[in-house]
Amino acid sequence: MDRILLSHGGGGRQSQKLVRELFAKHFANHTLDQFGDAALLDFDFRTPSPESRVPQLAFTTDSYVVRPLEFPGGNIGKLAVCGTVNDLAVSGAEPLWLSCGFIIEEGFEVAALERIVASMAQTARDANVSVVCGDTKVVDRGKADGLFINTAGVGRCISKKSLSPNSIQAGDKILLSGTIADHGIAIMAARKELTLETPVESDCAALNELTNAIMEVAPDTRCMRDPTRGGVAAALNEWVENTDTGITIEEGAIPLNESTRAVCEMLGFDPLTVANEGKLLAVVPTAESKAALKAMQSHVLGKNAAVIGSVTTDNPGKLVMSTSFGTTRIVPLPSGELLPRIC
Amino acid sequence: MKIENIDGVTATVSAAGSTIAANVMLLDEPAIGEYVLVHAGFAIKKIDEQEAAETIETLNKLVDK
Amino acid sequence: MKYIDEFRNTAHTKALAKRIADIAGDRELTFMEVCGTHTMAISRFGIRSLLPKNLRLISGPGCPVCVTANDYLDHAIALARLPNVTITTFGDMMKVPASTSSLTKCRAEGADIRIVTSTTEALTLAHQNPEREVIFLGVGFEATTPTIAASLMLAYNDKLTNYSVLAAHKLIPPALEALLGGQLKLNGFLLPGHVSAIIGSNVYKPTLAEHNVAAVVAGFEPTDILRALAESLEQIVSGNYAVNVEYRRVVSPEGNTKAKAIVDEIFESCDTAWRGIGVIPNSGLRIREDYASYDAAKKFNVEVEPTREHKGCKCGEILQGLCQPSDCPHFGKSCTPDNPVGACMVSGEGTCAAYYRYG
User: b/e map of C149-183 (b: 16 or more CB within 10 Å)?
Assistant: First the structure.
């Protein structure tokens, strides 16, 4: 491989390969090698007996290159705050502080910048986080496609048990907080090249209140994830890949807006592979699943929450779906840059 | 998809409340309200609603057997 | 959604599955779905989960990207490297490995290559960028060809001088003829739905008349495919072989006459090479001399590198149904959707891609 391709930024296998074979090779440390949504850290990491250490701090970063910058339901700034807050939340942390780096193209309208920043500020306030530091760079016209944003986030670990896909067991239930594919479709529709008009809006939202509510009533929750690039299909496949458990989901149980479904059909997309920016997947032991579902449904962001399937010993390593028309099929790990610059 | 509007060779076609443009120059006399098969941005054939209804009827009969 | 949901109904699929099992009994039967969209639909809808094990579905040469030989892509890449050229293409072509490169790699090196979902987008690009030459990669069977022909007609009528097509369109009926003349033992064909919407169902009759093989033109929804299989089984059991149409709501005996006329205005048939099968007479289309200024092969003079096919790649045999993806030494090892060796693994309608992903 001598040049970087778009697919290296897609979040799929190519991205993973680049991270492992280039970045992780050089940065090499135990924490990085966990490849979690956030790094779980403790200040006493230099003392012996690592097994007894409990992480105190979660730390994560994300860059946002979404096109277009503003879209129905959100903008690059709101996305930047929510995305980083969510990475901390699903790792079992209380998000506290964000940093925010802007790379702005020469000529970018100040009014647009202010709109985006005001939106970020509001989103941060609503999520109970503060932007405590930042940076601004400007590059020549033509070198930054308007605006790129990087956010890093720090949170306090609050989950009683460490959340990890390694804890997943056969019999556990898969919970999904609401309708899928809305974000990806809203982005597609907002791109000028397509003549698509649709009422679908991005679901961009901060999920920390929802994750708190779940962990409150379901302390044995195995793990959580916000299914962004690659959608639910990527997230669930990644959880069971190379393990001896599989996941079976019911198509009929998956919340999906009629408009989103129609657009997916029109464009030939499988909704399971389309990005979400305000949805949560959680693996919860059966004993706690009813309570967890109720807690989700009581929150505005989880009003359409549903149990969509369970972890099985059948089809180990695979994600399988019972369709709404009586068949069973494998849902593969999505590949390639299905929709570039979606977040 | 359903033809909602025609402007020259470009039609607006809809499904469940969302719309997209489709070129209709491959069809003979496309009309508003008709259902069409859209492929690569063009409407390539009209859907025969009578035949569709008959197909569904046949399927329903099969279930009842 | 209308005309989709009605054909995704559990009561119907279960009844059809039972009917198929009842008629088939324990006969060992093999059907070929000719069209790549069917290959994809069968996997995506989990159709095999409803079929008895003695019914085998194999994929045919109906994936346009898969049957296009490397020299076409090498030519496209050479064109992409010309100054002021914008290549527009359907997404499938991007990752296909050509002799030494791919459109994706070429784009990473700086070529202007854009994925479009319709020739109308390519025409818009041409109108908006008069200083650039917009070339569309015309690959596809009879369902897609009219859309490329239409774009050329529009370009011609608008006197647009910066739009052209590198054409590699192919025709299904001659391919069926070639398959039937080969070593393959088949009990029936699932004939392509959208191709047939354009060409009509009558056109298959001369080709299939001499052969004892079931043939049903099928739609793409789950009940369409199952119903077509049930109808094929009825033909086999009764011995009354014919070309039937399951997809009656879209396919008529004559097809879309207007679309056919537009194609005929722009294109003429020619002999063309299909990956793995070789040259099939009158199985391809080339742009007529009258429209030579819209033919990228004639408009631009480029040196194309010598063609290299990939050793050991069994795409050719797989396309003819002569072997399965698992018979290819590269399958799943050196050839995966992210690192494809052959076109069958990278195209959305490719057999190997479908088998790799859906098992």
Answer: bbbbbbbbeeebebbbbbbbbbbbbbbbbbbeeee
The ipTM, to two decimals, is 0.96
Domain membership flag for residue A292: yes
Q: Do C2 and B63 touch (CB under 8 A)?
A: no
Query: Chain A residues with CB inside 8 Å of B17's CB?
Result: 198-199, 258-259, 262
pLDDT of residue A177: 98
Question: Hunting for tokens 């200083």 — which residue is that?
Answer: C131
**What's the CA gap between A281 and C192, in Å, rounded?**
39
Same domain, A145 and A215: no
* Residue A311 Cα distances to A170, A172, A174, C46, angstroms: 5, 5, 7, 20
Indicate which CATH number applies to the domain containing A263. 3.90.650.10
Residue ending a domain, choose from A125, A157, A189: A157
Whether residues A218 and A318 fall in one domain:
yes
User: Are A309 and A211 contained in the same domain?
Assistant: yes
The answer to whether residue A102 is domain-embedded is yes
Beta carbon pairs, A and C, within 8 Å:
73
Of B26, B35, B54, the CB nearest to C258: B26
pLDDT score recorded for residue B9: 96
Chain C residues closer than 8 Å to A321 by CB: 46
pLDDT band at A277 (very low <50, low <70, confident <90, very high): very high
Instruction: Report in angstroms the alpha-carbon separations of A69 from A16, A151, A260.
Output: 26, 16, 21
Domains of chain B: 2-64 (2.30.30.140)
- The phi and psi torsions of C249 (rounded to 5 degrees) equal -70, -15
Collect the ranges in chain B with pLDDT lower than 70: none
pTM of the model: 0.94
Do A180 and A326 have their domain in common?
A: yes
Among all chains, which residue has been given the structure tokens 């970045």?
A23
The answer to whether C278 contacts chain A (CB < 8 Å) is: no
Interface of B with C (CB under 8 A): 2, 9, 15-16, 21, 23, 25-28, 35, 37, 39-42, 44-45, 47-49, 51-52, 54-56, 59-60, 62-63, 65
pLDDT value at A336 more than 70:
no
CA A328 to chain C, closest CA, distance in angstroms equals: 5
State the best of A257, A263, A264, A325 to mutate against chain B, taking most chain B CBs within 10 Å. Answer: A263
Final residue belonging to a domain, choices A157, A180, A195: A157
Domains of chain C: 5-61+173-245 (3.40.50.11750), 65-170+255-299 (3.40.50.11740), 315-358 (no CATH)
Q: What are phi and psi of A72, to 5 degrees?
A: -55, 120
For residue A158, CA distances in Å to A89, A209, A214, A219, A255 come to 9, 13, 12, 11, 29
Q: Which residues from chain B sit within 8 angstroms of residue A200, using beta carbons?
A: 18
Q: Are residues A143 and A182 in the same domain?
A: no
| Residue A4 belongs to a domain | no
The Cα C157–Cα C151 span in angstroms is 10
Q: What does the alpha-carbon distance between residue C247 and residue C143 come to, in Å, rounded to a whole number?
A: 15
| Domain CATH code at residue A130 | 3.30.1330.10
The residue range of the domain holding A90 is 31-157
Classify residue C289 by burial, with Cβ atoms within 10 Å: 0-12, 13-18, 19+. exposed
Q: pLDDT tens, A38-52? A: 999 988 888 777 666
Whether residue A335 and residue C338 make contact (CB cut-off 8 A), yes or no, is yes
Taking the CA of residue A308 and the nearest CA in chain C, the distance in Å comes to: 18
Looking at CA atoms only, how far is residue C149 from chain A in angstroms?
21
Is residue A72 a part of any domain in this protein?
Answer: yes
